[in-house]
Design brief:
heterodimer, A: alpha+beta, Ubiquitin-like (UB roll), Enolase-like, domain 1, 2 domains, 18 helices, 22% strand, globular, B: alpha+beta, 8-stranded mixed sheet, 5-stranded mixed sheet, 29 strands, 25% strand
């Protein structure tokens, strides 16, 4: 039980002894009678439960659309939540949705309205990306996109209250200091660490597990920093994927493009890079790119820190090199020329778990391969480097023949599984063909893919 | 005029403000209980239960098994072969085995996982091949035929033959299945997210051993249906009613999404075998189809679905000699059910594959083969011996080919492909002709109840249900039209078996056709009384327009007229009724007129594929669709756009996969992907065909729910064209996932 203090539609809520693992959606619908926010899937995939959550980030007030079905009350400390009820019915997004016939059955509509309203507030024009996390089965999205375009030029309605002041007035609670948390976690290694809860949420809503001890990390500023150090970039493990994308656009645009397709706006607004790494999933999308970039991670237990290469963190399926009470504190990407190619292959382009995700970082000097780091998710029990392919490439001339030879080495590196996301044969063929894609993209070929080309 | 106007959906403002209520949104009394099913973990087994841990779980109030049910243990919409709770044997993985009653939804779900089930496993039949091998089926195969297919085949200059597998489809209505029941002095009131309140009423009454009149079922709106709430809501409503009656407490049940996906039926998948004989001009001489429908464990509506597939095996083409043979296979999987198109799309894709195959064989543009085979406007016979009276395929397709620049773009694509080694493009134009009416003839009836109050406001009720399609708006437009009122004067109320009895499901695209006519009938009866009254009172001709009524020289508001009529003791309430004329169908013989008319349309899609990965996307789609004289162009275009995207999803990224043990592997949105906003074409042009329905339907409009679903097929065949352009084998199965496309390229 925890004390949680937050703002709901302008009203300060003080929960004296709340169960922090109750989802915000259940709280809204069952405790508050706010039934406008819908449960469509209860796992963060459909967006019917989208609400807008505001908080101070690096001194500015930021509004983010998030899935309330896998957001826990424990994460709400110090936040301001706006639900569809609070828009009032005459928000420009609402008017445009009616005028453009953007609702049919209406069940996804409150979530769509909240996504569009949050995007409108931030001045976003990438409507299809904004809506990637909001499924609609009736309209085929066309009228919703028309509504989004129509509303883009209209002014943002004035705030109903001073949200910044209200946030600052909230009673503090929970971890804000990384040292205090590190010390506590070393003593309480059985606690469930919650970064964005996009994974933990499902443990609660689908596996129906009932862990008792949680640590909510989302207010520890030290974990949410991105710093440029000598020799590289350090990314706090609590950095949201939405922010990471922004930080990668200039440096590693293909990484940023992959992050554009990572989950959805709502997921990227909740999920952290540390969670994606520490979770240990073999199909997590960020590890391949980070491994290809030669990233290392800092693990911390109490005051003790150690740094290891990310690729060495993954020991076997579901097992990582992480001691009890130890947590991922930061990720370090060494400075380098950008030669990164990142390819996420999934059944649906947006908001889908990858069949595989491959990252290639090949440096060519004077027509031959000086170095190659290649890593894949979805090809083995862990994110894993393709060392046989790398060695087939290294030192060889950068030409089609080398590519062909190196392709056959994928079978030495990987014995992928067949599952609902793709057969073993498909995965292996894909991995080989993606090397061709990388070669073509780095040989001046322009049109070699149907989405996500980065010039 | 109130009809033919683009009036927004009547619930639009409530949808966008979050005030539109769905079943789970209604506050229930404090003592309400919540239900969840314990589900089978095996696809085929005898079982025994130990529910000790369930009883002991937090919040559990009751646990119910099959032999404790008070009445009939059945929720089937057809032949009583679908027990609410498995009775000794489970027939698919996900089948409800026991029913938990708890103090909260979450506690019910948690407890439902705690049942200890001892299974004595049997071999499950999962695939078509396994079912064929085991001769596991619902009834004997059905054949429809015309002419002499065998002789014509043997005499045809050329023949092609082949086989394709076509996947099923999860409905993925955004609002999962939900119902609640309130005990009312021995009677029961049920609120259900259902397309078929009357069937819920019947199943609840059977389950409780009470007459139909003791069960009242209401449906205000569904958060999507698509056929998935035609019969699949029965289990929840019956469970709630049983518990409400047993405990004398309100009971609510809703499926968590993953439960919904693993319990409920989906679109039928099938195998189609074909052989076609044709001339050098591409004209069909003879076609033979064999359909193998995988129906799942219970019959549900499978006969009617498979029949409709046979009735659409011709699509828009004249098949002078044809034989269609249909097998309905019983497997240990979810019982496949109604889904938008109801077998029609599955029938149509077969003949479209045949057309593509013939064009490939002859080196012709597939569009030319299509044009060569369209039904003439009148006179041709379908394979089920119905005379075509209204075909507009030739004109409509010619107009679309022109407006979409089909020929020019096809040439440009060839040029593009020649210069693009990795990315390849394809284009395809696919028509649709879709038969409108329930093939079970007696279902083609509807009722309405209209009240005019003494202030002139109108309350409307009809037997159809609102699932997002805008039926209520359209029917209200009809009432407004008859009375010369603004549509805002018409109050639409929840569908209610207590107001309009003995209704048919809102299905077969027929909602507006049937209920619009019933509403018109009711309104006209009242209007006639008002006219007689006004004439007698004031004299002269009576005209209703713009909220006013002129009687000779006298002009009064509609409200004043209603008040005066009330004072004069004129009845201002009426029922209305409609039954579809002309339809007559013998489904055993395969002869008659199953449909009042056909709806037509066509779509052109251009796609591109990545030949390294199989990834693909739609660049542009142009649709021209026939809704007759539209009741509401905006709502009709909304149906067309939505159906197109849903149809494209069915044939591209939406893939259902079952493991060998019968487990549905794609039973969550994480693994089953419906289209999202970025999947729709960059350019999507939708136009309505300018032409009235030749039949006397409601204001000469045409049904729109299902026919445009077929437009998604243009995407599939554009992909096969692109694969062919990349040197691959275009005869791949559906859906065209990236994996299928890539594998087709390496064949």
């Amino acid at each position: 039980m925890a004390h949680i203090s937050f703002i709901l539609n302008g009203e300060v809520i003080e929960l004296g002894k709340a169960n922090p693992s109750v989802t915000l959606l259940d709280y809204l619908r069952l405790e508050r009678g706010l039934a406008g926010t819908k449960e469509g899937c209860n796992e963060g995939d459909c967006g019917a439960c989208t609400v807008s959550v505001a908080s101070m980030e690096n001194g500015s007030l930021v509004h983010r659309a998030v899935n309330s079905c896998i957001l826990l009350l424990g994460q709400m400390q110090g936040k301001s939540v706006t639900t569809v009820e609070d828009l009032g019915g005459n928000h420009p997004v609402q008017t445009a949705m009616v005028d453009h016939h953007g609702s049919q059955c209406g069940f996804c509509t409150p979530g769509i309205v909240m996504s569009l309203a949050a995007a409108h507030q931030e001045g976003r024009q990438d409507h299809r990306d904004v809506l990637a996390g909001n499924l609609c089965r009736c309209t085929g999205y066309a009228p919703i996109l028309r509504a989004a375009e129509a509303v883009a030029e209209q002014p943002v309605p004035a705030a109903k209250f001073d949200e910044r002041a209200a946030l600052e007035s909230l009673v503090d609670s929970g971890f804000t200091d990384v040292d205090a948390f590190a010390e506590w976690y070393a003593q309480n290694p059985d606690a469930v660490l919650v970064g964005g809860a996009t994974e933990v949420g499902l443990v609660l809503t689908k596996e129906l597990k009932q862990p008792r001890k949680f640590a909510f990390l989302n207010r520890i500023e030290a974990l949410r920093e991105i710093t440029h150090e000598d020799g590289g970039t350090r990314i706090g493990s609590g950095v949201l994927l939405a922010r990471l994308r922004g930080a990668m656009v200039g440096k590693y645009p293909q990484f940023a493009e992959m992050l554009r397709r990572f989950g959805s706006v709502q997921v990227r607004n909740s999920a952290t890079i540390g969670g994606n790494i520490a979770n240990g999933s073999p199909i997590a999308d960020s590890p391949p790119a980070l491994i290809a970039l030669g990233a290392s991670i800092t693990l911390r237990k109490g005051a003790e820190r150690r740094e290891i290469l990310l690729e060495d963190f993954y020991l076997s399926y579901g097992v990582q090199d992480r001691a009890e009470g130890e947590f991922v504190e930061s990720i370090f990407i060494p400075e380098q020329e950008d030669t990164l190619g990142v390819y996420k292959i999934s059944k649906r382009f947006d908001q889908d778990i990858s069949a595989l995700c491959g990252a290639f970082n090949i440096v060519v000097n004077d027509g031959s391969v000086a170095s190659a780091r290649i890593a894949f998710g979805g090809m083995a029990a862990t994110p894993k480097r393709a060392k046989a392919v790398e060695s087939a490439l290294t030192g060889a001339p950068w030409n089609e023949e080398t590519i062909k030879t190196a392709q056959s080495a994928f079978a030495e590196d990987y014995t992928p599984l067949s599952d609902q996301r793709g057969s073993a044969a498909y995965r292996l063929t894909l991995a080989q063909n993606l090397l061709t894609r990388y070669f073509l993209e780095h040989s001046g070929q322009d049109r070699v893919r149907v989405v996500g080309a980065v010039s | 005029m109130s009809v033919a106007k683009s009036i927004p959906h009547d619930s639009g403002p409530a949808h966008v403000s979050g005030s539109a209520r769905y079943v789970d949104d209604y506050p229930l009394p404090e003592n309400a209980v919540h239900l969840a099913f314990g589900l089978s973990e095996k696809a085929h087994a005898d079982f025994t239960l130990d529910l000790t841990a369930v009883w002991a779980a937090t919040g559990v109030i009751d646990v119910i098994v099959a032999d404790q049910l008070p009445g009939v243990n059945d929720v089937s919409p057809s032949v009583h072969d679908e027990p609410l709770l498995a009775d000794g044997t489970v027939h698919y993985l996900g089948q409800p085995v026991f029913l938990v009653v708890a103090d909260s939804h979450l506690n019910a779900r948690r407890a439902a996982r705690l049942g200890k089930v001892e299974y004595s496993e049997k071999d499950p039949l999962v695939t078509i091949d396994q079912a064929v091998e085991a001769d596991s089926k619902f009834g004997d195969p059905v054949t429809y035929a015309i002419g002499d297919a065998d002789t014509a085949m043997s005499e045809a200059p050329l023949t092609v033959s082949g086989q394709m597998e076509v996947g099923g489809q999860e409905h993925f209505y955004l609002e999962g299945q939900a119902a609640y029941a309130l005990p009312e002095e021995g009677d029961v009131r049920v609120v259900s997210s259902t397309q078929h309140p009357t069937e819920i009423q019947h199943k609840v009454a059977e389950a409780l051993n009470i007459p139909f009149h003791a069960v009242r079922v209401e449906t205000r709106r569904m958060g999507g249906g698509f056929g998935g709430k035609e019969s699949q809501g029965n289990a929840l409503a019956v469970s709630c009613a049983v518990v409400a009656q047993k405990l004398n407490r309100p009971a609510k049940m809703r499926y968590d999404r993953d439960d919904d996906m693993i319990i409920t039926g989906k679109r039928h998948d099938l195998r189609i075998k074909y052989q076609a004989g044709f001339g050098l001009d591409g004209k069909l001489h003879s076609v033979v189809f064999e359909h193998f429908f995988r129906c799942g464990w219970a019959l549900d509506l499978s006969h009617a679905v498979a029949d409709r597939a046979m009735l659409h095996a011709d699509n828009a083409y004249h098949l002078p000699n044809a034989r269609i043979l249909s097998h309905r296979l019983r497997t240990n999987t979810q019982s496949a059910t109604a889904y938008r198109g109801f077998g029609g799309p599955q029938g149509i894709i077969g003949i479209e594959r045949v057309i593509e195959h013939i064009a490939d064989e002859l080196g012709m543009d597939p569009l030319d083969v299509r044009m060569a085979n369209f039904y003439r406007s009148t006179g041709d016979l379908t394979p089920y011996h119905m005379e075509i009276e209204d075909s507009i395929s030739s004109e409509l397709v010619a107009q679309l080919a022109e407006s979409s620049d089909y020929e020019k773009r096809r040439a440009e694509i060839a040029t593009f492909n020649a210069g693009s080694p990795i990315v390849k493009r394809g284009i395809s134009l696919v028509p649709v002709k879709f038969g409108i009416s329930f093939t079970l003839t007696f279902l083609n009836q509807a009722g309405a109840l209209v009240h005019v109050y003494a202030d002139g406001s109108v309350q409307l009720n009809h037997g159809g249900t609102e699932m997002g399609q805008g039926l209520n708006t359209k029917v209200a437009q009809v009432a407004a039209e008859v009375f010369g009122l603004d549509v805002s004067a018409i109050k639409i109320t929840a569908t209610d078996t207590g107001k309009v009895p003995n209704t048919s499901a809102t299905a077969a695209s027929a909602g507006a056709d049937l209920n619009g006519m019933a509403c018109k009938d009711a309104c006209e009866k009242i209007k006639l009384r008002l006219i007689e009254f006004a004439k007698a009172k004031w004299g002269g001709d009576v005209i209703f327009a713009a909220g006013r009524v002129s009687v000779g020289e006298k002009v009064v508001s509609f409200g004043e007229l209603a008040a005066a009529a009330y004072q004069a003791r004129i009845s201002l309430s009426s029922t209305g009724f409609y039954k579809t004329p002309k339809v007559k169908w013998d489904r055993i013989e395969g002869k008659g007129r199953p449909f009042l008319y056909f709806a037509y349309g066509a779509a052109v899609s251009e796609v591109e594929i990545d030949s390294l990965t199989g990834e693909n996307r739609i660049l542009r789609t142009d649709i021209l669709h026939d809704v007759g004289n539209s009741l509401n162009p905006a709502l009709d275009i909304g149906q067309i756009e939505g159906a197109f995207v849903q149809g494209a999803g069915w044939l591209t990224i939406e893939e259902l996969r079952w493991a060998d043990d019968g487990r549905l592997q794609t039973a969550a949105p994480a693994t089953y992907k419906i289209p999202c906003a970025s999947d729709i074409p960059d350019v999507l042009n939708v136009a309505l065909w300018d032409g009235a329905n030749l039949e006397k339907t409601i204001y000469r409009s045409k049904a729109v729910g299902e026919p445009p679903f077929v437009h998604g097929m243009s995407v599939f065949f554009a992909l096969t064209q692109a694969v062919a352009a990349a040197g691959g084998n275009p005869y791949f199965d559906a859906p065209a996932t990236a994996e299928r496309v890539l594998m087709a390229l390496s064949e």
